[in-house]
């Protein structure tokens, strides 16, 4: 049975994990929870540090105040800014400010001259993308272009647009797009990257990105590059007014890649990013972060679907096994621990090689596995509980079964075996063998079932446990599996009920009546016995063993039809609990293996009279006798009675004086 349960739990765990893994595969194939995965993976950022070779020149509010002009600035201001950056040694200047229409001739001329003189300015160009999910290299639906006078002296061009996800968060941008002429235009960040690595030749499209020189800018199948967001320190963000004033620390801009862009909140060039979903970040910082991703080679890779399905199934299996095989109170802690360990692995994996593991499906898989395993365990245990109740209820009173099942810990000690005080009852039909010799087999079986039902009913009515049936004999006990302080009293009451039920069964025109048995003899003994599951690995029997059991069997053997014989221990306990119970002392009982005769008593039912005991008279226990055989007195004329002594028990105190045919007297 234990092996069966182990294999069932193991199989159920595997099935649960397999079903969850299959559902995860179907969900991934249909982009279920895709948005949730994006939002959860935002917590992985920031991932690293910003490249110190990248500097942002910010047109923040202080610079707007210092220049004294509303945005957009006069282009002569931009000309001065480019001149100063060139003077300070900027390696490349990326302009996240678009110049798509002419301004005043004087200002445009000044800016055109500054761009041409610097020779390292990458101008930004604004485009507009169609509102569709990209399937390949994007082609804009609108291009604003750059004023030709500025384009003539520029070192390059790059689009400044990003591609926000459906929730409005900017997590990626297209490193290159197709223009209306079919040529590839890089993004502002990729154009600066080309210059920094001294790439020559055209940009080429690869299945997993864009090749620039001998470098690959990695993307996904849609040719969008996930931006690996970092926090740019304040030391790498320089106010524009300081550049214009020439007050920037020497060497701060020399040899650096400089991106110029609007950062003032009122200029509305803010993008919602994983680092700031409330107010967003300036667009120039998004481009600077994209450039940093390329320079560091910190390309983000999403975990493949196959790996996600495997991890989900593994998480579900681990949780299911924990629920199935561990204590119920421990399984939620194991589940929480597994989830915490998985989240730690997710962060570690991202920090080590920028792999983004799917967070949604393994977490959902763990939770679903916990609930499903709990449900399976609950329903199987409920089914097992019902089965135990049904089977065990044939031996123990139903209310006792419920109490045992409601407090299994207390009963487990008994089930695993222990020595404890019990009261044992044996009941045997008298004359059944002789009466059944000439009866038809069907009639014998019908009569026996009636008698055994009467005996069993009496035991269960007094909340006893049926140990076994031995032909026409019944063995029962009290005090296990549930503790019962009054086990002796209940055993005696069951014996009396049994005699009444047998008398009823023998009356009327029934198969039991026609069989003509003489009655039922009952023996009850109280004392220590070992109770528990006893047997082999293939078969166990919940039973009791010990000297008390043998004694009860001997008492049953000497009890005549309709008689109840008990030990002095039993008589003493019931005499204390019920002074109206009529007890009659019998001749001492000589039992094989006992040094001295046992002091025994008969429980008198209504209409029964006490047996007269002659001095020195003893009874020899002979199995299946059904009556007492007086033996001669001892040679010295003394009685041989003595209190029964049982291992672990003190000698039984003398019983209160018992009146023949009456209850014990009270002092």
List strands and helices in order, with pairings.
Blueprint: H1 2-29, H2 34-41, E1 54-59, H3 61-67, H4 75-87, E2 92-98, H5 105-118, E3 121-125, E4 127-128, E5 142-143, H6 148-153, E6 156-159, E7 172-173, E8 176-178, E9 184-186, H7 188-196, E10 204-206, E11 209-212, E12 215-218, E13 225-226, E14 237-239, H8 240-245, E15 257-262, E16 270-273, E17 276-282, H9 283-296, E18 301-302, H10 305-325, H11 331-353, E19 355-356, H12 360-392, H13 398-406, H14 408-415, E20 418-430, H15 432-436, H16 441-461, E21 465-470, E22 473-478, H17 487-506, H18 511-515, E23 519-535, E24 540-545, H19 547-558, E25 564-567, H20 568-577, E26 583-585, E27 589-590, E28 600-603, E29 618-620, E30 630-631
Parallel strand pairs: 1-14, 1-15, 2-3, 2-15, 3-6, 18-19, 23-25, 27-29
Antiparallel strand pairs: 4-5, 7-13, 8-9, 10-11, 11-12, 16-17, 20-22, 20-23, 21-22, 23-24, 25-28, 26-28, 29-30
Helix pairs in contact: 1-10, 1-12, 4-5, 7-9, 10-11, 10-12, 11-12, 12-13, 16-17
């Amino acid at each position: 049975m234990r092996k069966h349960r182990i294999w069932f739990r193991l199989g159920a765990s595997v099935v649960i994990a397999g079903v969850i893994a299959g559902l995860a595969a179907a969900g991934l194939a249909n982009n279920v929870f895709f948005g949730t995965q994006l939002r959860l993976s935002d917590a992985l950022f920031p991932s690293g540090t910003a490249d110190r070779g990248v500097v942002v020149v910010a047109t923040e509010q202080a610079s707007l105040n210092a220049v004294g002009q509303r945005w957009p600035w006069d282009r002569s201001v931009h000309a001065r800014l480019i001149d100063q950056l060139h003077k300070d040694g900027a390696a490349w200047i990326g302009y996240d400010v678009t110049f798509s229409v002419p301004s005043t001739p004087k200002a445009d001329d000044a800016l055109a001259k500054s761009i041409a003189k610097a020779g390292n300015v990458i101008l930004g160009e604004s485009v507009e993308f169609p509102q569709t999910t990209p399937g390949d290299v994007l082609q804009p639906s609108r291009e604003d272009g750059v004023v030709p006078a500025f384009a003539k002296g520029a070192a390059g061009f790059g689009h400044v647009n990003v591609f926000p996800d459906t929730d409005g968060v900017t997590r990626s941008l297209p490193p290159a797009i197709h223009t209306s002429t079919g040529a590839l235009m890089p993004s502002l960040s990729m154009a600066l990257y080309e210059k920094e690595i001294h790439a020559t030749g055209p940009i080429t499209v690869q299945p997993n990105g864009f090749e620039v020189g001998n470098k690959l800018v990695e993307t996904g199948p849609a040719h969008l590059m996930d931006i690996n967001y970092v926090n740019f320190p304040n030391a790498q963000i320089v106010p524009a007014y300081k550049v214009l004033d020439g007050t920037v620390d020497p060497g701060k801009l020399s040899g650096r890649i400089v991106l110029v862009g609007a950062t003032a909140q009122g200029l509305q060039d803010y993008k919602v990013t994983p680092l700031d979903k409330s107010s967003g970040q300036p667009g120039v910082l998004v481009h600077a972060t994209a450039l940093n991703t390329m320079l560091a080679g910190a390309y983000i890779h999403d975990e493949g679907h196959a790996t996600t399905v495997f991890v989900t199934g593994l998480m579900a299996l681990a949780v299911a096994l924990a629920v199935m095989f561990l204590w119920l109170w421990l399984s939620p802690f194991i589940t929480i621990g597994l989830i915490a360990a998985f989240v730690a692995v997710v962060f570690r994996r991202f920090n080590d090689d920028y792999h983004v593991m799917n967070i949604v499906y393994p977490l959902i898989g763990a939770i679903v596995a916990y609930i499903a395993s709990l449900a399976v365990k609950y329903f199987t245990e409920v089914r097992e509980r019902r089965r135990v109740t049904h089977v065990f209820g044939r031996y123990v009173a139903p209310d006792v079964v419920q109490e045992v099942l409601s407090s299994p810990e207390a009963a487990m000690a008994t089930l695993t075996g222990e020595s404890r005080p019990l009261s044992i009852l044996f009941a045997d039909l008298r004359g059944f063998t002789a009466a059944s010799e000439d009866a038809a087999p069907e009639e014998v079986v019908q009569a026996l079932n009636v008698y055994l039902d009467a005996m069993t009913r009496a035991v269960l009515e007094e909340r006893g446990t049926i140990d076994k049936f031995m032909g026409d004999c019944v063995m029962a006990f009290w005090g296990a599996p549930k503790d019962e302080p009054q086990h002796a009293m209940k055993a005696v009451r069951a014996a009396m009920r049994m005699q009444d039920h047998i008398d009823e069964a023998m009356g009327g025109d029934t198969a039991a009546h026609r069989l003509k048995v003489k009655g039922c003899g009952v023996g009850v003994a109280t004392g220590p016995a070992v109770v528990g599951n006893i047997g082999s690995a293939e078969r166990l029997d919940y039973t009791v063993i010990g000297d008390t059991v043998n004694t009860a069997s001997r008492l049953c053997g000497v009890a005549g039809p309709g008689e109840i014989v008990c030990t002095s221990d039993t008589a003493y306990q019931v005499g204390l609990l019920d002074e109206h119970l009529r007890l009659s002392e019998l001749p001492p009982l000589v039992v094989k293996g006992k040094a001295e005769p046992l002091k025994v008593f008969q429980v008198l039912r209504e209409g029964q009279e006490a047996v007269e005991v002659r001095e020195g008279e003893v009874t020899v226990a002979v199995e299946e006798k059904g009556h007492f055989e007086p033996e001669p007195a001892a040679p010295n004329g003394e009685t041989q009675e003595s209190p029964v002594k049982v291992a672990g028990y003190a000698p039984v105190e003398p019983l209160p004086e018992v009146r023949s045919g009456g209850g014990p007297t009270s002092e």
